Structure formats: structure tokens, C-alpha cells
């Protein structure tokens, strides 16, 4: 019922834009196709090993509109891998609508935990989602239905943004824990709200140099835990997880045709395993260097690391495993027609704790039909 109400509200806003705005214009519509060819030597995927593989094409359909002055609506439908069409993002942003001239955003969208999560994957220079994001956010990024407020507070020469949101509580359920049928029934019957917050700032050091930084946190339920039988309680306990991240970016732009950007992010995850056990901590980080030149080319390198801890029962006591995984890569990009097409090549090397190292090559072509703005 909640989803039906929200989606109906968005349709009403889009449909009513011509009624309430004298300067109404048709919504911007864009279709983005993502095509990949890849090869690797991973023996766990033996049917693809050392072959030239063509990935299932992916597509996004983006609808953007200014409903009225200061009110913007966005709808993004996505077809990823072999999945059917799904609503990836649907939200309305009302600018300077609250006290302190705060912005209000309502809907489902990619949360601003770090600078990279709100960016759609087809815009990454290095093609693959960073390893910590794959583990902690899932294949499609960290998203949820939210009511979010943003306040901009200039402090001297530094622009500060403070964000806070109440979440529906689905952000961590799909990828941190594979739910059983019984848990899925509990999830459909109840929703435990989650919370999101971010403090971000940007400091223009000079006309050509800028430093940006941010600290973010998400708290939400990721699973349900049944009580012990002798407790006599039927209602399952909600298990919550914390995600805390810090990010920093340095950007040097000596001319409009060349840019050097360095960015790094650290993510720490705490999960409540239930049954009065201590929180389980995992962590990860990545950093990359990206050099854009001659307006159409870019080249760079990235390094990623994840330390994952898992709890399992051993004679009625806690047992734990810890695994470290490293991934490093280089990438190259070419934009023959500016924003309407991108051709990218990336090579990665994965070093797990156990097993052999794995290499992987990806060639990507992104085509955009229609008017489309970056999701940054």
C-alpha cells in the first residue's frame, strides 16, 4: 500500500506539471544502453574461463522533469543482467522548502553514503563497482525509500552540507543476508525504519584545485532472529547493521579539457549476529586516480580491499572466519561523441586469501539516446 501511494503521487506530480506551471515543458527522456565483453581465468566460473564472453545487455530509461520552479522529479527504470524491468529510482526533490532553506527529497533513490554510491555504474571510469560496495551495498548499490532533508551551511570558504533521512528499512536486507522463506514472510508483514546521515564539505583551495570530504552513516535491519523456544516469545528479533564511511576527493583542473581526480573511501560495517553476541565488524577501502585529457580521453588506476568477518556456531559458542581480498586494476576510456557515448577498457587482478589469483578484462560500450544528465 505504501508503494502504491508513493508511485501514484509521482504520477500525479508529473501529470499535473502542465496544470500548475505556466512554463511547463515535456520531461527529458533518455535511454542508456550498456554493452560488455569480458574474459577471465576464474575456475569457479569454468563455463566462461578464458573465453570471449558477451554479457547480457543492460539498459536504463530515465525520465526527468521540472514539475514546477524548485520541484524536480526523477524516475529511472532499469533492466540489469537477466532481471525484468524494475524501478531503480523514483523521487521528487523540493529545493529550499523547509526552514533554514533546506532541500527535501522523498522517494526511492541511491543513498549518498560516499560520493560514488549515488552515481550509476555505467558512469564509472573503471567499469566495475568497487569491491567494498559490492560486498556491503550489493550489485545495484545502496538504495531505499527515504524522506531526506539537506541543509547547506557555508563556513568561511568551505561549503558544508548536512543530510538526515528516515528510511523505510530495506537498504541492507537484500544483500547482507539471504533470507529464508520464514524470514521473508516476517519482512513482508513488518518494516523497521532505518536512519541515514551525512556531513560533507568542499574546499576550493584555488581556481584549479578543490578538496571534498564526507562522513556518512546508515543504520537499518538486515535480518530477523528467532527467540529460543524456552523464552516463549514468537515475535522475531530485528537484527540491525551499522555502515559508517568516510571519503575524500582531490580534484585538479588546469584547463577545461584536462582534469586529475584522486578519490578514496573507507567503509566499516558492524552487524548484530543475535543471541546476545558481540557485533561483528568488517571493513573495506578503495582509492583511484583518474586523469582526463583532451576532453575525450581518460586513463587511471584503482586499488580495492575488503576484510570480511563471518560468525558460525561451534559447540554452542561463537566461531569466526576472517578473509581478506585485494583487487587492483587499470582502465582507459574514450568518448567519441562527448556525453552520448563512452568506450572503456579495464583490466583487474583479484588476490583472495585462499585460492589462486584471478585476472579479468572488460570492454564496455555505453550509448545514450536522448537528453541525460549525470546522476552525481
Strand content: over 45%
Give unreliable regions as ranges: 4-22
Taking the sheet with the most strands, its summary is: 16 strands, antiparallel, barrel
Question: Judging from the principal axes of the Cα atoms, what is the shape?
Answer: globular
Count of domain modules? 1
User: How many strands in all?
Assistant: 17
How would you sum up this structure, described in words?
The structure is a single chain. The chain has 376 residues and is mainly beta. The protein has a single domain, classed as Porin (Beta Barrel), CATH 2.40.160.10. The protein has five helices and 17 strands. It has a 16-stranded antiparallel β-barrel. The chain is globular, with a radius of gyration of 22 Å.
Q: Keywords, please?
A:
globular; 376 residues; mainly beta; Porin
Write the SSE topology:
Elements: H1 2-15, H2 17-20, E1 28-40, E2 53-54, E3 58-68, E4 71-79, E5 86-98, E6 102-110, H3 131-136, E7 143-155, E8 158-167, H4 173-176, H5 181-189, E9 194-203, E10 209-225, E11 237-255, E12 258-271, E13 280-293, E14 297-314, E15 317-334, E16 341-352, E17 358-370
Antiparallel strand pairs: 1-2, 1-3, 1-17, 3-4, 4-5, 5-6, 6-7, 7-8, 8-9, 9-10, 10-11, 11-12, 12-13, 13-14, 14-15, 15-16, 16-17
Amino acid at each position: 500500500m505504501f508503494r502504491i501511494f508513493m508511485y501514484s503521487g509521482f504520477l500525479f506530480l508529473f501529470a499535473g506539471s502542465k496544470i500548475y506551471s505556466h512554463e511547463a515543458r515535456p520531461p527529458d527522456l533518455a535511454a542508456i544502453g550498456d554493452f560488455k565483453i569480458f574474459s577471465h581465468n576464474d575456475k569457479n566460473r569454468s563455463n566462461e574461463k578464458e573465453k570471449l564472453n558477451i554479457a547480457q545487455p543492460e539498459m536504463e530509461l530515465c525520465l526527468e522533469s521540472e514539475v514546477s520552479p524548485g520541484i524536480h522529479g526523477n524516475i529511472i527504470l532499469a533492466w540489469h543482467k537477466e532481471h525484468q524491468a524494475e524501478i531503480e529510482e523514483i523521487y521528487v526533490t523540493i529545493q529550499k522548502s523547509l526552514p533554514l532553506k533546506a532541500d527535501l527529497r522523498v522517494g526511492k533513490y541511491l543513498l549518498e553514503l560516499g560520493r560514488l554510491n549515488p552515481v550509476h555504474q555505467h558512469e564509472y571510469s573503471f567499469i566495475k563497482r568497487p569491491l567494498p560496495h559490492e560486498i556491503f551495498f550489493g550489485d545495484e548499490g545502496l538504495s531505499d525509500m527515504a524522506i531526506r532533508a539537506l541543509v547547506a551551511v557555508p563556513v568561511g570558504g568551505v561549503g558544508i552540507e548536512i543530510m538526515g533521512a528516515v528510511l523505510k528499512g530495506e537498504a541492507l536486507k537484500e544483500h547482507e543476508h539471504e533470507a529464508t522463506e520464514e524470514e521473508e514472510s516476517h519482512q513482508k508483514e513488518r518494516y523497521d525504519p532505518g536512519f541515514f546521515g551525512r556531513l560533507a564539505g568542499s574546499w576550493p583551495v584555488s581556481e584549479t584545485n578543490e578538496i571534498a570530504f564526507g562522513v556518512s552513516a546508515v543504520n537499518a535491519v538486515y535480518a530477523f532472529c528467532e527467540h529460543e523456544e524456552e523464552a516463549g516469545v514468537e515475535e522475531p528479533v530485528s537484527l540491525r547493521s551499522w555502515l559508517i564511511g568516510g571519503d575524500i576527493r582531490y580534484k585538479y583542473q588546469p584547463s577545461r579539457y584536462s582534469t586529475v581526480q584522486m578519490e578514496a573511501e573507507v567503509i566499516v560495517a558492524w552487524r548484530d549476529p543475535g543471541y546476545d553476541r558481540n557485533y561483528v565488524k568488517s571493513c573495506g577501502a578503495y582509492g583511484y586516480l583518474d586523469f582526463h585529457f583532451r576532453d575525450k580521453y581518460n586513463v587511471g588506476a584503482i586499488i580495492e580491499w575488503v576484510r570480511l568477518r563471518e560468525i558460525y556456531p561451534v559447540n554452542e559458542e561463537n566461531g569466526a572466519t576472517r578473509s581478506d581480498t585485494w583487487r587492483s586494476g587499470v582502465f582507459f576510456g574514450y568518448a567519441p561523441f562527448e556525453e552520448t557515448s563512452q568506450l572503456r577498457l579495464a583490466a583487474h587482478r583479484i588476490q583472495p586469501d585462499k585460492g589462486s589469483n584471478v585476472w579479468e578484462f572488460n570492454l564496455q560500450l555505453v550509448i545514450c539516446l536522448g537528453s541525460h544528465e549525470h546522476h552525481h
